[in-house]
Amino acid sequence: MAVRARPDEFFDDLETMSAAAREKHLDAGLAAQVRHAYRHAPAAKGLLDRAGVGPGDIRRVKDLEKLPITRKTDLLEMQKAALPYGGVAAIPGEAVERVFISPGPIYEIQPSGIKWFAKSFWAAGFRKGDVVINTFTYHMSPAGILFHEAIRDCGGTVVVAGTGNTDLQIQIMKDLGVTGFVGTPSFLMTVINRAGEMGLDVRQDLTLKRAWFTGEMLPPSLRKTFEGDYGIDTYQAYAVTEPGGAIAYECRRKSGMHLMDEYVTEIADPETGKQLGPGEVGEIVVTPIHNRTWGLLRFGTGDLSSYNPELCPCGRTAWRITGIVGRAGDAVKVRGMFVVARQAEQAIMGFSQVARYQLVVGRRQHRDEMTLRVELKDAGADIAKLSDGLNKKFQDTCRIKIDRIEFVAAGSIPEGKQGIVDERKWE
Prior knowledge:
Elements: H1 19-40, H2 42-51, E1 70-71, H3 72-81, E2 98-102, E3 106-110, H4 118-123, E4 131-134, H5 143-153, E5 157-160, H6 166-176, E6 180-183, H7 185-197, H8 202-205, E7 210-213, H9 220-230, E8 233-240, E9 245-250, E10 257-259, E11 263-268, E12 282-288, E13 299-305, E14 307-308, E15 320-321, E16 326-327, E17 331-334, E18 337-340, H10 341-349, E19 354-364, E20 367-376, H11 383-398, E21 404-408, E22 419-422
Parallel strand pairs: 1-13, 4-5, 4-6, 6-7, 7-8, 19-22, 20-21
Antiparallel strand pairs: 2-3, 8-9, 9-10, 10-15, 11-12, 12-13, 13-16, 14-15, 17-18, 19-20
């Protein structure tokens, strides 16, 4: 039985909906968004027409499988062909409030007044009385202003710092009694290291209590440093600019990121577009259902993750993604499951006895096979015990079994041939 958190833990009632209520909310929001996009966004109408699907055919989240996935490269081509918005705008030009620019360039329109990131900051503990330094850029990118608005939605005071100038940022933090940091984990580490070089004790001379990160994943080792060595409570969020903003965010339990109910988020096979089940690694595919200005349907982020449908003890009921494990181009599909290079490396190189490895994917009698070739640091290692450990850890992490483990002599794995090697031939 999940323990319900304090009422002030939640930003709105959507976060604690029952499974039935959430399904109804997402299905209804999706159907309305598709109808609106079909009527007002030419690109959405073209997408459905080419798929032989009418707006009335998309009534449930499962129905999204009838549509192809649109990716950033597609959006770039659409905008080149039909400037400025590629037919994705679902409002007339004179109604556009603001335009952001992401690399490409891609022109994105967004309305004000939507609580884009507020849930994420609220879950991280930002409240009235916090003085928060925002180190994301306000220039062209949506990051700075969207995070700014979210901090204000939570009642905090925003220090408009932007990027760079580490020494000045430290002075500002000291002078203003900054309690919250918003930026990337690597930049906060840069700030901490520089503060030490300046003779400051971060715990004593600064007043940082919490930090909120996006743009980079937060490694467990770095979180341990921030929280254990400096007493900074850390949270992270997953965001993508093209569909509108925050997709998922951490709660105080920090055991995965809760999906936002302002989007329909799928974990899908990037090759077939089919939706995947709990624990299966696939591409994060997003359809905003709260933003009527932008008729973007089924946007593929290129990021790989999996989801956990179990209830979180924090009281939030939304499914959680388990973090970003890689990019679609870094994954190899083996026996119907995606094996992601970064996940494989974490599983295998976590064993201190392993010097180098190569995961070879081949085919034998119409079946995919995986052979793990391992160079050892110590020839005297217990091979049987290590084999069992490697296979168990790999299966737990990547959800697929290694067929064979070969221990090879030092130097057997050539430079540039480490990692996953796909030797299958599809003749």
